[in-house]
Design goal:
Strand order of the largest sheet: 2-1-3-4-5
Mean pLDDT: 75
Number of domains: 3
Number of strands: 5
Radius of gyration: 37 Å
Low-confidence stretches: 1-10, 136-150, 164-171, 467-480, 645-654
Distance between the termini: 30 Å
Order of helices and strands: HHHHHHHHHHHHHHHHHHHHEHEHEHEEH
């Protein structure tokens, strides 16, 4: 039996209280210290984006300080240029909006005619019907109708003039204007200045900061800390570079597309699209909505609006479904739900800057969870790595009786590997988990039946050798007193007879698979039999008792030397050594010309290799169903012959 992980002691009430208090303190520090933390975190992330450029300049021949200054100056020039370009475009759009007032008014009237106008018409027709039936009431007064009517800006009624207000002094002193401009721009300029200063020092002392962090966090375990830092740095660098490249390409594509279809200020919308695409999932569509409204306002018809929507749909679908998976796939290692939740969480703490940094911040938490055991919860909750292994998922679904989900995952697995590999790597380890729980009394008899029926359904459905009408005819008649392997074998005996096929066959065309009698052995032997029959090899599942039953009867139609190979299956070679040797001796005495292959499975959850039995009468020893299938393929390179059954599906390759 495999060794199991030691059970962790349950946390006491005081420990849980301390964890809650610590989390509350961390959240309070993140929220109230955002004015200091946001510039520092932003500078650290920018350093990861700039580090490859610094290394490039150093390889060219510049010194470390000069490389840092060139990279920072280039960053400042690019950001300043884009900000100035964006500001000029915004001013241009704001100045051009009045000339689109007539178009906006016309389209609002058109929309009103198609919506509220039709509703008014329907209301009038309904009023006529009610009046003709004599159930109507007196028509509402004009004042009442007006009180519940449409807003003035959606009607043609003249708007009441507003009372004249006293003219105020609109001009202000130049000093006041400069003061208002500086007060508005001071906060972003201050943040940008702090980020720039911190960025310079982080790049200058990159190696020193890394060593200090290793000394602080790693202590004596330098290997694990270095691996964690390298993992986080590589993931974040790939994320920033690939995301920046993709978003820049999307912005260029939108700019060119809008220019071609004739939307004014296409450069502005391209820049906004590239910037807002850093906001997960919703950013690009917010810009698309604004651009679509702008396109509807500037053109008399609706064609420009439709072309704008189609442009955004086509570009985003191509990028998200083709380019991004091909370029960097699952670079972040975050689940989609974690990205959405992280965006909500960090935007609630730090506002728009937190929304932009939500993905890299969450990625840092996931990397920490992968390398720090105490933070493994973060990796489980936020990472895209499956929380359960495939065998664990199969066992969990079988406990719930959900054979359909097991089949869905099995078909995905079989697209990449063989049915023998699925049995070795998934099905048998899952049943090993069931054996452990059964030995410990952790599952009830009802759960045992659910597992049994689910596994029988999965094996029968995946077996291409049997016809669907045969499976349907005997469906779910699983006897509680019979093991899974015996149940599956019984199904084949119902279709092919007591000996699972005719006895008059070609010489050396039959392969016998002998189990040692336990539940695990019966199932493994039956799986091997079905794998070989899928290879169109006449394999038959027998037990030691079947030899005695066979000798008790006369079989004049039996073909001499019909058996070519004999597989003796043992799922616990150490405990079943005596039974294994007895079965080998029996097979060798009855069928001396056959090649005897021992299938001795190592325990799936064991930490050390299981010693395999050594028997002089055994020709080969294999330790998996896939290796056993390869032995049969080597002996029957073109397949064997199987008894014909009406409606049988064609065999599949293993």
């Amino acid at each position: 039996m495999s060794s199991q992980d030691p059970t962790l002691p349950a946390a006491s009430a005081s420990q849980r209280a301390m964890v809650i208090i610590a989390l509350a303190c961390v959240l309070a520090l993140l929220y109230f210290g955002r004015e200091v933390l946001v510039p520092i975190i932003l500078a650290l992330f920018l350093s990861l984006l700039m580090a490859p450029w610094v290394r490039l300049y150093r390889r060219i021949g510049f010194g470390h300080g000069a490389s840092v200054m060139i990279a920072v100056v280039a960053l400042v020039v690019v950001v300043t240029g884009m900000t100035g370009m964006l500001g000029s475009q915004v001013v241009h759009v704001a100045r051009s909006l009045p000339q689109y007032e007539a178009t906006i008014h016309t389209k609002v009237q058109s929309l009103r005619a198609e919506t509220l106008g039709r509703l008014d018409m329907l209301q009038g027709e309904l009023g006529k019907v009610i009046d003709e039936s004599g159930q109507g009431t007196a028509p509402a007064s004009a004042g009442t109708a007006a009180s519940f009517g449409t807003p003035p800006y959606l009607t043609n009624a003249p708007v009441a003039p507003k009372p004249a207000q006293a003219a105020t002094k609109s001009t202000s002193a130049p000093v006041g204007v400069i003061t208002r401009v500086l007060s508005t721009a001071w906060v972003p300029l201050e943040t940008a200045g702090i980020v720039l200063v911190v960025l310079i020092f982080v790049l200058l002392e990159h190696e020193s900061l890394r060593d200090r962090f290793i000394r602080l966090a790693g202590g004596a375990d330098l290997r694990a800390t270095t691996a964690a830092i390298n993992d986080a740095g590589e993931r974040l660098s790939r994320f920033f570079i690939s995301t920046f490249s993709v978003n820049f390409g999307v912005g260029v594509a939108i700019w060119l597309g809008l220019t071609v279809i004739g939307v004014p200020s296409a450069l502005l919308w391209g820049l906004l699209t590239a910037a807002m695409r850093f906001v997960p999932y919703v950013g690009v569509w917010l810009v698309a909505a604004v651009v679509s409204l702008f396109a509807a306002a500037v053109a008399p018809g609706w064609s420009l609006l439709l072309m704008t929507v189609v442009l955004y749909l086509v570009v985003e679908i191509i990028v998200s479904q083709l380019i991004e998976p091909f370029l960097y796939g699952h670079t972040t290692g975050l689940s989609p739900l974690a990205v959405v939740v992280a965006a909500i969480f960090w935007s609630g703490l730090w506002g728009p800057i937190g929304l932009l940094m939500s993905t890299p911040l969450t990625l840092c938490l996931v990397v920490a969870g992968r390398h720090v055991k105490a933070l493994d919860l973060l990796n489980i909750l936020l990472g895209d790595t499956p929380a359960l292994t495939i065998p664990q998922r199969v066992y969990q679904r079988a406990l719930s009786g959900d054979a359909g989900e097991i089949l869905s995952e099995a078909r995905d697995f079989l697209k990449r590997k063989s049915f023998a590999a699925y049995c070795d790597g998934v099905l048998l380890p899952a049943l090993q988990l069931a054996r452990i729980d059964l030995a410990g009394g952790a599952i009830s008899s009802e759960q045992q039946m659910l597992v049994k029926r689910a596994i029988v359904t999965v094996v029968e459905t995946l077996d291409s050798h049997e016809s669907k009408w045969t499976r349907w005819r005997r469906r779910t008649s699983v006897l509680e007193s019979v093991s899974i392997g015996r149940s599956l074998r019984q199904h084949r005996e119902d279709a092919f007879g007591r000996w699972q096929g005719p006895l008059a066959v070609q010489p050396c065309s039959v392969v016998l698979c002998i189990g040692l009698g336990s539940v695990a052995n019966d199932l493994a032997t039956e799986l091997l039999t079905r794998i070989l029959r899928d290879l169109h090899i006449d394999a038959r599942h027998l037990s030691v008792e079947d030899f005695l039953a066979f000798d008790a009867q006369q079989h004049p139609e039996l073909t001499p030397n019909a058996v070519s190979m004999v597989y003796v299956v043992s799922t616990d070679p150490t405990k079943e050594r005596g039974a294994f040797d007895d079965a080998v001796t029996l097979a060798h005495s009855r069928i001396p010309q056959a090649c005897i292959v021992g299938v001795c499975f190592p325990e799936p959850l064991a930490t050390t290799d299981t010693p395999l039995p050594v028997n002089a009468e055994v020709n080969e020893i294999v330790n998996s169903l896939e290796q056993a299938a390869q032995q049969a393929i080597a002996r029957f390179p073109e397949g064997g012959s199987l008894p014909d059954v009406p409606g049988r599906s064609p065999p599949i390759s293993a």
